[in-house]
Every structure is written in C-alpha cells, then in structure tokens.
Amino acid sequence: MVRAPRPRMARLAAFALAIVAGGWAPSGAAVRPAAHRPGAPAPIQHVIEIMLENHTFDNLFGHFPGADGVPQGATLPNPVVTTPALPAVHPVVASANEGDVLGVIDNSRAGELAAMDGHPGSGYRMDRYTLHRQDGMAAITLTPPADDPNLQALARQYTLAERNFQPAIAPTQPNVLYALAATANGWMVNATPPPQLGWHSIFDALTRAHRSWRIYYGVPPSVLQGSVWYRLIPPGTAPDITGTGAFLGDLRGGALPDFSLVRPGVGYSQEPPEDVQEGDAWLGQLVEAVAHSRYWRSTALFITYDEGGGFWDHVQPPVVTRYGYGTRTPMVMVSPWARRGLDPRTTTNLSVLAFMAHLWRLAALDQLAARQDTLASAFDYRQRPLPPPRLPTVPPRTLVFTGATPLSDPPPVAPGQGLVLHLRANTAGLALDRGLSGPVALRLVPPAGTPVPAHFPVAVRLTRGEATLAVRLPLRGYYRLLAAGPGGSRGWLTLDVGVTPETVPAPAG
Asked: Which residue, among 223, 325, 214, 206, has the nearest Cα to 266 in the 3D structure?
C-alpha cells in the first residue's frame, strides 16, 4: 500500500529543523601545491552557505561531464509489479521531481539503511532502493540538467565536490545538526530533540571569537518557534535568526556578517514535492545578488544539500561513525578564488565548518569536525580572480504555486478531481510583491501521448501579486505547468495525477 504524503506541517517542522586533507586538481590535471602561504592573509572574509534539501549527487549530477556519476548500464531490482518478468530497471532521467511528486520516499534512518544494503566487513552495496513500495522508481529518478540550469552552470564555472557525503544515515534534522554543531548527539529523527541534549555550535564558536553571523530563513519566524534552532545559538542572539529578505538588504547595505547561513522558504527548498526548477531560479537570484555586490571578491559561497532525501546514489560511503556517513550530496563552491573543476576529496557539510576554522583559527567543535577536510586547497588565492557567474535562468520575480495557504504544497489528485492552485509573485527575499499585476501565460506539458485538456486555462491574471486558478486533469500521469508573468516573472510546477511511486516516469526530453 502506498504511504500517504507527509503532512505539510510535519514537513515544515523537519524543514525548519532542518577526511584528511589532500591535493586537488581538475580532471586529468596534476595536483598543484597548496596555494596559500601559512600566516598570509586570505582574501576570503565572508563565508555564505546556501543549504537546500533532499537530493543526492547522482540525482542532480549523475551525468555531469567527467564526474563519478551513474555508471553506464546501472540497474536495480524491478519494483513495477505489473511487469514482473522484467528483472531489473535502469535509473530514469525524468522531468523535475517526477517519481516523487508525492514526497514519500523513505529517508528515515531505518529506510536508508535498508536501501543502502549494508554488509559487515564489506560496506554498503547501494542496491535496494527500488524494493520498498513507497520508494520504487521514485528513488532512482534523475533530474535532467535543464531543470536546475543555474546549479549546473555554477558547477561548470567553479568547483563541484564529487565525494561529499551526508554526515549521518538519517533525515533532515540530524544532518542539519551535524552541519552546524558537528554532532546530532545520537538524535536520528525529525523531531525536536529533548531539552537535556546540549549543543555547542558554529554560532557559539564564532561569537566567542568575536566573529559575526546571521541565519537567514525563508519561513515566518513563528514556524521556527519551539524548534531546535534557538538552542543552536548563544543566549540573547535570537534577532540574528531573520528572513531571507534581510540577507539581500545586508548585501546592499554593507552589513554582511562573516558567516551567513541561508535556508529556503516553502516552494523553494527543492525537497519533493517542491519543484527543483523553482528552487534553482531562487538560488540564481541569491548568487547573482552576491556576485554583483561589494562582497564578491571577499566571499566563499557554498551551495549544499542537507541530505539525500532517500534518492539513490551509487557510491559506497565510508564508515566513519556509528551513524554514517550516508549517501553523497552535492556541494558547489563559488568564489573568485575557487579552483575550477571537480574536487575528488572526501568531504561532508562539516567541511564548511572546518573551512571557517582554518580561515579564522577557530578551535574544532569536536573530534569529527577536526577530522574534516578544510577545503583550503579548493581555493587558489594567487590565481587571476574568476569573474562573476553567468547564469541562464534568473527571473526578477518567481511565481510559486501553493495549495490552500502560502505554507502548503499543491496536493496530489485523482484523475478528474478538481484542484485549486494559488499563485504568488515573490521577490528574491521571498516576500509577496504586491506591486506586480498583470496576465500570466500558462503552458501545460502533459504526459507523453496525452493531449492537453481543452478546458485548461491558458492564462490567469495577477492582482497585487496573487492569482487563483482551478484545474481538472482527466488522465493519470505527471503534468508539468510553466508560468510566464509580467516583468519577466517565471514559475514551475510538476503535478501528480493518480501516480504511485512504482510508476516508471517518462524519460525527459
């Protein structure tokens, strides 16, 4: 029986909570010596981490040129019960989020351990991702590069870490805790840790070293109340957890802190069922804002993913602690001083902590943090500075589709069932732009061989940044909805109509 989609508020709670250094070189190039003389001042004065959600390396970069991506001819056991004679299936490159629009892939510790197929003494075989009915083909769908064009462009123009592992075999919250405090204190679930678990985080370390920091979050502060976030920061610093609009204001106003952590809002995290391309457009807005600010020459920007979301990755992770490592997740390093190409060293998101410790001479948070690669040799401070990025899809405003409220995703529906979608025009700071009004052209891309319903609306009108449309899709399948609005605004949505995780998505293209 297919598990029901995770309740939106449960997802919001998780969302809110949510080794030895070596040489590096582009593919085929010789390893160069360390580029930074000990004691010499580094031009990097600001570290920014934009942490997105729930994708593995193979899911987003499985066919990236030169990378250790999906092996040719890779197969996994067939989950499609209607074709039992087919012994195995191949990973499928399918349009954004196809296969997991329901958001039901099991990324719990137990689910991940079962999918990774561990064997004492020989590690993980990474071969059982299709065998849980709630995962099925959903777990081995691959996102085509056209659906996250900005992330792909940044990986080509700067540095892509191809052996970055999630710290724990666990869902969002434990991995976010590892990324900020170097430990989850054994708490391996998406629930608020008990009060007796104490935390010494990077924010404590920076405050003690008289370094500034801020957490910029794309959800209302009320969503974070009662969560672990306010236990990760020193007493009296609650105002430093603020909105993503403040990040853009600090860039413009010359108030960017030494360390900025940016987390997404609803509709932009890329966690299924949220749209990959919607989050990618927002990522492009943030990166362009940094690149065209006074801080470009003094910044190292890290684009990370909190965990793999239960998606398949073929690379066996090293066993480092009793809790992990887990699957590979993407990490892209963007800076004028980044060495372009693929970085094959073993890293985790804790390596961003190690980078700051190396840069600002901070003590490591714990032994695991001390063992991390510092990423220092991923930067060359003697090279000609790389230019600002050239990004393909950066609309001035994004159009995000929601369900009944701004904090709800459009639900899956049965064939012929009516669905009301709400459309909001958001700024890069994820605030509703009430000054934007005008027509929005809609284009529906139905499943292969399925006609566009004759009654489907071809346009709606934004009024003070908002619009509502009613749709009814009579046939089963994945439907892609594209929106083009006033002032160059753009939006994307993938809708599931009567699909189960066992469904084989149609290949992209």
From this structure: 223
Cα 111–chain centre separation: 20
Alpha carbon distance 180, 202 (integer Å):
6
- Cα dihedral across residues 166, 167, 168, 174: positive or negative: negative
Contact predicate 306/178, CB 8 Å = no
Please give the Cα distance from 145 to 62 (Å, whole number): 10
What's the longest Cα–Cα distance across the chain?
69
**What are the pLDDT digits (tens) for 271-326?**
988 899 999 999 999 999 999 999 999 999 999 999 999 999 999 999 999 999 99
Here the tokens at position 357 are: 């410790």
CA 19, CA 348: separation in Å to the nearest integer? 9
29 contact partners, CB below 8 Å, separation of at least 6: 341
- Give me the numbers of helices (H) and strands (E) for the chain, helices first please: 11, 23
- Assign residue 379 a region (left: φ > 0; alpha: ψ between -120 and 50; beta: otherwise): beta
Query: CA 113 to CA 169: how far, in whole Å?
Result: 7
pTM: 0.91
Q: How far apart are CA 76 and CA 61, in angstroms?
A: 19
CB 272 within 8 A of CB 6: no
Q: Are 124 and 166 in contact (CB under 8 A)?
A: no
Token pair in block for residue 404: 């009944």
Residue 449 tokens read as: 């061989």
pLDDT in the model for residue 372 = 97
Phi, psi at 123, each rounded to 5°? 75, -150
Residue 390 class from Cβ within 10 Å (0-12 exposed, 13-18 middle, 19+ buried)?
exposed
Reference 6, options 15, 344, 478, 319; nearest CA is 15
Strand ranges (E), 133-250: 141-142, 159-161, 164-165, 213-217, 241-243
